[in-house]
From TrEMBL:
It is found in: Endoplasmic reticulum. GO terms for biological process: allantoin catabolic process; purine nucleobase metabolic process. It catalyses: allantoate + H2O + 2 H(+) = (S)-2-ureidoglycine + NH4(+) + CO2. Pfam families: M20_dimer, Peptidase_M20. InterPro entries: Amidase_Cbmase (IPR010158), Bact_exopeptidase_dim_dom (IPR036264), Peptidase_M20 (IPR002933), Peptidase_M20_dimer (IPR011650). NCBIfam families: hydantase. Belongs to the peptidase M20A family. Its EC number is 3.5.3.9. Its cofactor is Mn(2+). This is allantoate deiminase. Keywords: Endoplasmic reticulum, Hydrolase, Manganese, Metal-binding, Purine metabolism, Signal. Homodimer. One of its GO terms (molecular function) is metal ion binding.
Length: 493
């Protein structure tokens, strides 16, 4: 707990005439008023020297909330929010963000992967840069805050610095990046934007196609961005040019709401694997093929999905202990393992036809990378046995892999301190200890960890709900997040 701020004592010479008994109290107050005015030129809470800070509510709260709402209406669908990689709405959202970056005093550009950048060079443009970012794409039927909150908070904090004449005084460059794709909805390949910046996106990703046969390269070309294998490789930032990466994101969980605090520092992000499972059987008439002669891929897929649930609920029951899977690994899985099936499709899809093929996606997440591999191995092994027993063909493709990420301890401490400072400034009260959390969701910070040290700040969301229109962050919590980013940036002045 921080010590209470010391009080300020004003020392100044007092003319002998002022001490005359005939002097009124009012005259004495008038004499002191300019000195008090100097100590109270800004609106807000006091720092450790007793000087008041501007809390910038018009920028970090009112304007930031307004921009989140405006961005939340930029959608490719009527009646719900949907923005996928390089869709028309995604391009419009990028243009909005670029205009807001310029409003904050930043130099802007769009790169060959559709990422939107805004940069303040500071005093020393050659210094290693701090990168702050999140993603502008969404899931289908999304909320207003996932991804967008981190971008808007960063822009707002830099605008607050600019409005107070301090943007050019930063000791190192600060760059905001709105990543074009994190969710992986359109191409089933997450982190297209941040992976390109980090230098871990293979050039083969340009030829990955969506459900309509449009490739990543084709989607970029439709947005007037000509991306080749050569200039894709040139997007990679050199590690020597980057000081660190910070991301602000809604928690997507209930912990902060339960402890009654709007902000928390993140110590790590769970590893993630996405699988695509294909089950092929024999297509036939629903009513004429006897039950004992059917090779129905739908039933096989259903059995596999139910087994996956059992495996991930009770990993200790299915996993054997050997040199690769120890008891400590299994114990770690018990606290962090999550397995879900998010998409199922059949061909053909008709009520009176046994489908010939079923595909479904599997998402496996855990803080222990070895344990996650053990789960995938066990699932794949059982899958082939089940498919053989049912006389259907099965195939498993790994569509995405990301190892667990441990946030940089120093950055985490700085973000925790900045959160404490922000909450104390806004409430003028001691907020207590800022919690430290784990993340079960994937974030651009996972890709950026291949480039530089990373830190994350979580923001409270109502009910822990995310990827839903019910996603909600209080206006005051948006303010607190912006203040935390500002307090963090002030350490670079």
């Amino acid at each position: 707990m921080a010590a209470p701020p010391p009080s300020i004592t004003f020392s100044f010479p007092v003319p002998h005439a002022i001490m005359m008994k005939s002097m009124s109290i009012l005259s004495f107050i008038l004499l002191l008023s300019p000195l008090f005015a100097m100590a109270n030129t800004s609106f807000g809470a006091e720092n450790t020297e007793g000087i008041k800070y501007d809390l910038f509510p018009e920028i970090l709260k009112e304007e930031a909330v307004g921009r989140l709402n405006e961005l939340g209406k930029v959608s490719d669908a009527n009646g719900y929010l949907e923005r996928t990689f390089q869709s028309p709405a995604s391009v419009r959202a990028g243009n909005l963000l670029r205009a807001w970056m310029e409003d904050a005093g930043l130099k802007t550009w769009v790169d060959q992967m559709g990422n939107v950048h805004g940069r303040a060079e500071g005093i020393n443009p050659s210094e290693k840069a701090l990168l702050i970012g999140s993603h502008l794409d969404t899931v289908i039927d999304a909320g207003f805050f996932d991804g967008s909150l981190g971008i808007i908070c960063a822009i707002s904090a830099l605008k607050a610095l600019n409005s107070s004449g301090r943007l050019g005084k930063l000791r190192r460059p600060v760059e905001v990046i709105a990543f074009s794709d994190e969710e992986g909805v359109r191409f089933q390949s997450t982190f297209l934007g941040s992976a390109a910046i980090a230098g871990i996106l293979p050039v083969s990703a340009l030829q990955v196609h969506d459900k309509n046969g449009v490739t990543v390269q084709g989607a970029l070309r439709a947005s007037s961005i000509e991306t080749t294998e050569e200039n894709l490789l040139q997007l990679k930032y050199e590690p020597e040019s980057v000081w660190g990466y910070v991301e602000v994101h809604i928690e997507q969980g209930p912990v902060l709401e339960n402890v009654g605090l709007p902000l928390g520092s993140v110590k790590g992000i769970a590893g993630q694997t996405r699988l695509k499972v294909t089950v092929k059987g024999t297509q036939g008439h629903a009513g004429t093929v006897p039950m004992n002669m059917r090779q129905d891929p739908m039933v096989a897929a259903a059995e596999l999905i139910v087994f996956l649930e059992s495996l991930c609920k009770q990993p200790d029951y299915y996993l054997s202990y050997d040199g690769q899977c120890t008891s400590s690994t299994v114990e770690s899985l018990a606290g962090s393992l999550v397995c879900t099936v998010g998409e199922i499709s059949t061909w053909p899809s008709a009520s009176n036809v046994i489908p010939g093929q079923v595909t479904f996606t599997v998402d496996v997440r855990a803080m222990d990378d070895l344990g996650r591999e053990a789960i995938i191995y066990e699932f794949s092994n059982r899958l082939y046995h089940m498919c053989d027993r049912r006389s259907v063909f099965c195939n498993v493709e790994r569509k995405h892999d990301a190892n667990a990420v441990v946030c940089d301890p120093s950055l985490s401490r700085q973000l925790k301190s900045a959160s404490y400072t922000a909450l104390k400034r806004i409430t003028d009260e001691d907020p207590g200890d800022v919690p430290v959390l784990m993340s079960g969701a994937g974030h651009d910070a996972m890709a950026m960890s291949h480039l530089t040290k990373v830190g994350m700040l979580f923001v409270r969301c109502r009910g822990g709900i995310s990827h839903s229109p019910a996603e909600h962050v209080l206006d005051d919590d948006v303010w607190a997040a912006g203040m935390a980013v500002l307090a963090f940036l002030e350490t670079l002045l």
